[in-house]
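User: Fold this; tokens only.

Assistant: Input:
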Amino acid sequence: MDTTQAETPGTTAATTAATPADAPSSAHAGHDHAGHGHGGHGYSARKDEHLKRLRRIEGQVRGLQRMVSEDEYCIDVLTQVSAATKALQAFALSMLEEHLAHCVAHAVEQGGPEADAKVKEASQAIARLVRS
């Protein structure tokens, strides 16, 4: 990771990484969030918890940078990479569960092309997670 990116305010590896070709655009064109009754996304109710979890993961990644800069033993670094990867996977599964339970369920209740689009979008997200 380029440390200049990590030190730039407002950017993270997630915001500077290349986007997969099958990833949805950040504009979410055609995604109607009105009528959800919460004013946001499925994760909105637990936003503080998610942000706390992401800050812990960020700390793990910063710890990895420190370990490499201090020439720590390779296996120790790899062990921490594994821990950070597992933490990100657990976060992703939590977000996916909330998306399915909230956004996809709401779209299916409404029916029509929006429901089909949400199911397809969720399937693509699952496929990306499985490949990672």
